[in-house]
Design goal:
heterodimer, A: mainly beta, six-stranded mixed sheet, five-stranded antiparallel sheet, 54% strand, B: mainly beta, four-stranded antiparallel sheet, 11 strands, globular
Chain lengths: 114, 114
Amino acid sequence: AQSVTQLGSHVSVSEGALVLLRCNYSSSVPPYLFWYVQYPNQGLQLLLKYTTGATLVKGINGFEAEFKKSETSFHLTKPSAHMSDAAEYFCAVSVPDSWGKLQFGAGTQVVVTP
Amino acid sequence: DAGVTQSPTHLIKTRGQQVTLRCSPKSGHDTVSWYQQALGQGPQFIFQYYEEEERQRGNFPDRFSGHQFPNYSSELNVNALLLGDSALYLCASSLAGGSGETQYFGPGTRLLVL
């Protein structure tokens, strides 16, 4: 079975500062990894995903993440935070032959201060 | 192109009642997954439907059941509601086949059980 751990349930960042959200996974087989964002009272929107190939993945809204197999990590970063980045972020994992069943982390709430 | 839609947006029920939630997938998608998101937690996989059959199921009791129609829309039914069933119920659609396929989420139905 696979699992996801997101370090830090709440992160506060200043506008213009680096955003770093940590995600570690556990999987016995090569995983597929996803980051989703959830704005208040809305569903989840895909930011980016890693399946195969290049380990540095670029997504929407200036976010990127790097798959590090040796560290079993898939941390999300954005060089400069905007007020509009305030939301909850979820890391998720699936594995081959699971038909896309997603296992989510508990989420990280991001607050952006002026 | 309409994305994933869900109805109703909000619902209030009392313990012991039954509820039906509905989902229309993104155009062209044939697979529908349902997730339960309790307050302050990440989404938990309930089950997935493909070709009108339940293809896989998460760790949820038989009180949770579903259906997929020939037009790929889906229903989630919950019988004998418990207080603990209060949550945001998310529907996600995708294309069949690969675990790396992106799942597109609807805005959810917020269920409150009193």
